[in-house]
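Entry 12.
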Amino acid sequence: MNLAQINESYELRDERLDSIPENFERGVTSVLTASELGVKPIGWRFYTAGTPLWRFPSSHGVVLSSKPVSVKISRGETLFLAENENLGLYATGESRDEAIRAFCEQLIHFYEHYKELNWNRVTGEARRLKEIYENFFKETRK
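Predicted 3D structure (tokens):
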């Protein structure tokens, strides 16, 4: 995945966030686990499905999650969007599989990034993400 694809994913995310009213309150708390696999419409011509993932192949081996990572797949007019708000990951692809593959590549990238950071160099959201990647993910060799 190249930088243009990553930027396109985050631009699409920002577009979607702009359409949410400012006084909107989420009815449920976000969690790291997935509970449903059903497909349901969320808007005109847009559909979403939750997909739990446990294994993420990397160049060094496989990164395993201790809990399923919920990936919400949305289908737009031309692209699929794979996202997890808790991890702040948003990826696009021309097919559902491409979007999931791009999502997995981003997860591996940020897993390796946060794993390398020292605790004294992270604050706020970065600290929260480092805790998630250290507590819920483990790399195994091929």
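Annotation: The beta strands are 39-43, 46-57, 61-75, 80-84, 89-93, 137-141. The chain is about 35% helix and 35% strand.
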